[in-house]
Amino acid sequence: MHELLEYGFFRNALWSTLLIGTGCGLVGTYIVARRVVFISGGITHASFGGLGLAYFLGLSPLLGAALFALAAAFSILRLSAGGRFREDSLIGIFWSAGMAMGVLFIYLTPGYAPNLLSYLFGNILTVTASQVWLSLALGAAIVLFFVLFHRPLFYIAFDREYSRTHHVAIEWLETGVTVCMALCIVLCMKLAGIILVISYLTIPPTIAARFRGNFKQQLVLSAAVSCAGSVAGLFASALLDLPSGATIVFCFLLLLAACHAMRRRGKAPR
Amino acid sequence: METILELRGVDAGYDRHLVLRGVHFTLREGDFVGVIGPNGGGKTTLLKVILGLLPPRAGEVIYRFPARSLFGYLPQNSRFDARFPISVEEVVLSGLLSEKGIYKRYTRADRARAREMLEAYGMASCRDRAIGELSGGQVQRVFLCRALVSSPRVLILDEPATYVDNRFEQAFYSLLGELNRRMSIVMVSHDLATVRALAKSVISVSEGQCKKE
After folding, report:
1. Sign of CA dihedral A101, A115, A130, A145
2. I need a surface site. Which of A21, A105, A200, B2 has the fewest CB within 10 A?
3. DSSP string of A134-183?
4. What distance in Å separates residue B205's CA from the closest CA in chain A?
5. Subunit contact A165:B51, Cβ cutoff 8 A
């Protein structure tokens, strides 16, 4: 295991895993509490359209994916809030439209076609040093956001309509969380891939929710579980020569199963 | 009596459906307004416009005081996730959101206010329990504490006796008279006899129109 840490690409992967794991653990807790898990699925798949378009235009794929993720996130939230469209239908439309656009633009790109599988299922060992710095900036921003605003976010997640009667900056906070969610999803693509990103946002918060505790404790526990599962998965994938994204998800599932087993033995109350 | 808020010729609704048409309404200090009317007549929509949750399509809503700290609100159907990790005390503290804003930390004094409120409404023993563990009537009492903890100028009640047992219902209605000495009350209810007995004035909302009884 020590030998692995001597490789620069593995250290990049490890730092990236810890930083994005922390961010996803925090954002995921809000997403699960607000019951908007499938919006994050829609955003993830919509971002593939931006990735394909960026390839076609010769731009940074991550930039294209980030712009599409943000556009999809705000479009789904705005259009469904106005009552003109059903939220689940919008998610389905953005989900399929993004994937279709991505496949078409990558197909139309002349010359070498990038390996789609690395975006669909992730390959953390291709994370570059600049992406680690990007993850550090995003991770720090998300931690700061949740440290400052965890209480109002908690109240919004519990009862949004009641919180709105207080005429405080609810929309501003929701915009902040949406931006965090979209950017987390994009950075998480290298780790878990488009298809498995949703597991980062749902399994660690679900494990944290199995233990009694307030929202703040669940935020911390979810981030810790996310980091622990990702690091375990990363080492397991490198040692057993398995795909990193799928191995990390499998580690999350093992932690969830262990949590259930603890509950059956009466160690965890829920 | 000083005017607190006014609705002038307000049209309001959802999507393509207009629920309120040309509604005029004035609330003054010390008022106790009972709102009655058939289902789907626009009672809850009127409350949402007053609370600023639904912007009017036409007309205007004029607040004589900052809307931020004006209202205590007890909704009709408080649907929430029973597994949500929030204690009874935290629910009551959420009633101070307008006062604290999004940056300020909650102090010991804030917690003491929440505890006093729970004590006053017979819920002190449930303070550390998760809200999802309580019965419907207990939840309604906790939400009343949440509505009152900020000492609002206006208390808005939407079918407040829903889920409340008979014993607490009677105590609650006597309490409203006492609260009305400190704040104005707007109460929506199906129970015409109760509204007539408690409210100083009654308005009927039906087919988008608002009429004084």
Report:
1. positive
2. B2
3. HHHHHHHHHHHHHHHHHHHHHHHHH-HHHHHTTTSSHHHHHHHHHHHHHH
4. 22
5. yes
- Chain B residues with CB-CB distance to A155 below 8 A: 94, 97
Taking contacts as CB-CB distances below 8 angstroms, the residues of chain A near B14 are 83
* Residue ranges covered by each domain of chain B: 1-70+157-179+186-213, 78-152
Closest CA–CA distance from residue B154 to any residue of chain A (Å): 12
Name the residue of chain B whose CA is nearest to A160's CA. Answer: B80
- Which residues, in sequence order, are CB contacts of A88 under 8 Å at separation 6+? A38
Provide CB contacts within 8 A for A194, sequence distance 6+.
Answer: A44, A45, A47, A48, A119, A120
Residue by residue, pLDDT tens for chain A (270 residues) are 778 888 888 899 899 999 989 999 999 999 998 888 888 889 999 999 999 999 899 888 888 999 999 999 999 888 887 667 888 899 999 999 999 999 899 889 887 766 666 777 777 777 888 889 988 999 999 999 999 999 999 999 999 888 989 888 888 998 999 899 988 888 888 777 887 888 989 999 999 988 867 888 999 999 999 999 999 999 999 899 988 888 999 999 999 999 888 877 765 545
Q: Of A240, A192, A236, nearest to A16 (Cα)?
A: A192
Domain containing A72: what range? 4-195
A152–B102 CB contact, under 8 Å: yes
Q: Hey, which CATH number is domain B1-70+157-179+186-213, 1.10.287.1700, 3.40.50.2300, 3.40.50.300, 3.40.30.10?
A: 3.40.50.300
Number of domains in chain A: 1
Q: Which amino acid is at A198?
A: I
Nearest-by-Cβ selection for A167 from B52, B84, B86: B52
Choose the closest CB to B53 out of A35, A165, A169: A165
A202 within domain boundaries: no
How many cross-chain Cβ pairs, A to B, lie less than 8 Å apart?
A: 71
